[in-house]
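Lecture 7 notes: from sequence to structure.

We start with a single chain of 323 residues. Read the sequence below before looking at the structure.
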Amino acid sequence: MTFSILSFFAGLVLLSGAAEVLVRSSVALAGRAGVSPLVIGLTVVAFGTSAPELVVCVRAALADAPGIAYGNVVGSNIANILLILGAAALLAPLSCATRGILHNSLIMVAATAGFTILALTGVLVWWQGVVMLALLAAYLVNAYWRERSGVEAPAHAVEVVEDLKALKRRPLALLVVGTLGGLAGVVFGAELLVAGAVDIARAFGVGEAVIGLTLVAVGTSLPELAAAIAAARHGHNDLTMGNVVGSNIFNILGILGATALVRPLPVPDQILSFDLWVLAAVTLAVVPFVARRAVIGRGVAVAFLAVYAAYIAVQFVGVDIPA
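Now the structure, written as tokens:
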């Protein structure tokens, strides 16, 4: 049991550190190759920051642990809204008036609704994964043209530009080693994390979905949480909402889409009867704020965090699943 716990947390630490190295090195390589900051932000950064969730889900599918795969995505999206937005808004008021945020929020709602409909069939199969990845590609193309035309503020590109010049000056060999090493670290970290999570679930007699929705989901969301807190402290809280919305879209369309290509994924009963509807509710909860271009203040932040604490508590107390 001790080994399983150590394996889980070692994998978590390795995932976070390796993902950071992977993103920074691959961003610098793309910059040296002449790729624009906008394209880097929409592709390299988007894929790189989601690498932990993607590799964990694929590894869980290969290990025949669909509860961890679904729990990782559903739990991460719930944590992104309640935990990350709540923590950021607790430090500083969170603006929902960023250009294009309503457009992307509606896409997030549509992606969540589409995933809910597919999940209710009981299993995700390869052709549904292809459709989800095609929709993700369409979303990225649309985002590129909207940002290129000035309709939408390039939040991802702004973050990349800050470090791009300094990163590009590093030796090419170091960047290549960083990219390959970061990728290897993410893969090995996912192996440790999934193996540890499965063993912990079995040892404590809880479902794999519960571990995926809590320990795995929060663990793979820690880099986004740290980034949101750092943004709040540096007065860039306006980027947090856009990053959370974009992450949730990518998690559903990209990560679940790619995972469904690996093998058919049966949806656990708990996800179908409870967590899917919690995800739908918290996703819809964001819309009134962005529709009114409102500010999420500390009162709402406390409510978000309280709801998230209650949600985690319910997971470990147990969810009644209808027969």
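The longest strand covers residues 94-95. Keep this in mind for problem set 3.
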